[in-house]
Amino acid sequence: MAMESAYPVRAFAGWAVRQAADAAVGLSRRQGGSTTGSDIDPDLALAWFAGSFTPQGWSIPPPWDPLAGDYPGAGGWIRLHTNAPHHRSAALAALGLPVDPLPGRDTVSAAVAGREPETLERAVVAAGGCAARMLTALQWTGHPQGTAVNQEPLIDWTRVGTAAAPAPASSPERPLAGVRVLDLTRIIAGPVATRFLAGLGAEVLRIDPPGWEEPASEAELTLGKRCARLDLASAAGARRIRELVAGADMVVSGYRKGALAGLGLDSARLQQLRPGLVEVALNAYGWTGPWSGRRGFDSLVQMSSGIAHAGMLHFGTDAPRPLPVQALDHATGYLAAAAALRAWLLRLDGGVFSARLSLARTAVQLQHMAGACTSARTPGRAAAARQGSGKESGQEGGILSFEQVQEQTFWGPGRRLLPPVRFTGRGTVPRLAWDVPAGPLGAAAPQW
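^ thats the sequence. predicted structure below, dont judge the formating
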């Protein structure tokens, strides 16, 4: 997988991982650790962005639905995100195409060709689907949503109140041991965050709705977690999720703005169920502005924010050129992990805080970094990383291999890259290690 980019994705990956690492250092010190800091290899960090796991003797399904991707319309480009069946159905409905039999990509392309991208984008979103027309960075800056996101902080903190300090069974080496994290997130940012928290000892319970599947990412993102299912719209599911909240120390959620409140789980109710609960929430397009409730994914935010257009200009292509990895997702995940760790550090002193992040605001950070970074075009050792392989070739084409360790998953054996963080210091320092092997969604019971 070629890693050349119009943006400094290597530096960005290293920077994002460092935010989480620094927060872990602070928490470990609070618990008596002697760590002096952390070493981050930006090449290895970028390799984790590309995929940390390589199966052996079995294969992982492709990450994209056959109809997902970029299509030229009448006067511009649009990206359709069709990985979820209901999102695919919405896109086809907006195009006036049947779901059964499923049309081919050429048929979809022909239907898109006669549509104006902005009009089609609105139609897909109105149908409950996910789409984004390609905008330039200047167009996004002038767009009401781009304007709103530019005014948001990278991490939006709210002081919820105070509560009695907990006494978890953690240690400087495992600073989140005994901390229960309720994971209400899906592809990809939220699961990256909770994977990092699990690596520091947290007990992570992930909840997905019935029927939701992520076969291409489960081996990568369920590491360290137990995964269960609940229908939160049912009476039994609503009752059980409240019981789980009451037993949690943190909730990390990836719902659209207002979606949790619609399920009766707004912040006030969460705090009522579990006083002192740490809340970390993330979404696609930000928490203010007209699109704050819009469904979105990394690839769509890249189209909206001007990133895909900048790549097209940089490489002189005639089609959108996104980042070589879903860097907005992964970076937001590490930022969310950093927020959770910092909030827990404050929680140990009786302070209760919540944090909100978004892919769109993380995109602003990347664009600012590109403006300040003189090595934006330098791909480093991971110049041609193959997705999930852990093998990279540099600019000169020399093959390099990052060290990997053997791992047994539910599906079979494989090899995992070493963590992208090495904590330093004499004596007691944190360590990233995962006690629960990667496994399928819904394999565990919804209980602590």
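Residues 374-380, 382-400 have pLDDT under 50 and may be disordered.
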